[in-house]
Amino acid sequence: MNISFTEKQEKYIRDKVKSGDFQNASEVVRNALRMVATYEERMVSELKAAIDLGWDDAGTSSTATDIAKEQEAKYAKK
After folding, report:
1. Of 45, 49, 47, the residue nearest 66 (C-alpha)
2. Where are the domains of the chain?
3. Element (DSSP H or E) covering residue 48
């Protein structure tokens, strides 16, 4: 598998290896992928919880689109 990175991403990977936190570039990339998977799982879980809350509260004015936008904004700040 061949993967291309921007110069900024390559520098980040090199810096992480140089710091001693990782032994090689593959470890940095695997760690990043684990973090993305965790982020996605958490986001989906929170969206499901918000949807469930919406189903339980028929009086809410929030739509699924509203909920998704709120979650997107929440994660964009992080």
Report:
1. 47
2. 7-76
3. helix 25-56
